[in-house]
Design goal:
Blueprint: E1 7-11, E2 14-19, H1 22-42, H2 51-63, H3 65-72
Antiparallel strand pairs: 1-2
Length: about 90
């Protein structure tokens, strides 16, 4: 019989995600904490965002916190290089 260790992230009695390593579970839990802290900030009426959009934006910013921190410190945005298009050449003999 195999023994499998699972790490479960639970919020308000709801199972959010299951991981095989404690490190991944802790990172996800921290991301949820950051999102929970961002959401009240994003409810500012000046933004005029819907509740669903606020939640999505909060999670997006939390997931990309390292990039966001760099930008807020005046750093440059890290841009991913676009995928190269492969041109298909056909030989018409």
């Amino acid at each position: 019989m195999a023994v499998i260790t699972k790490f479960v992230v639970v919020r308000e009695g709801v199972e959010k995600m299951t991981f095989t390593s404690k490190k991944e579970a802790d990172a996800y839990d921290k991301m949820l904490d950051i999102a929970d802290n961002l959401i009240p900030f994003l409810t500012n009426p000046e933004l005029g965002l819907e509740d669903n959009d606020i939640e999505k934006l909060g999670f997006f910013l939390a997931q990309h916190k390292d990039e966001l921190q760099s930008l807020l410190k005046g750093g440059a945005a890290v841009s991913k290089a676009p995928a190269k298009k492969v041109s298909k050449k056909t030989n018409l003999d």
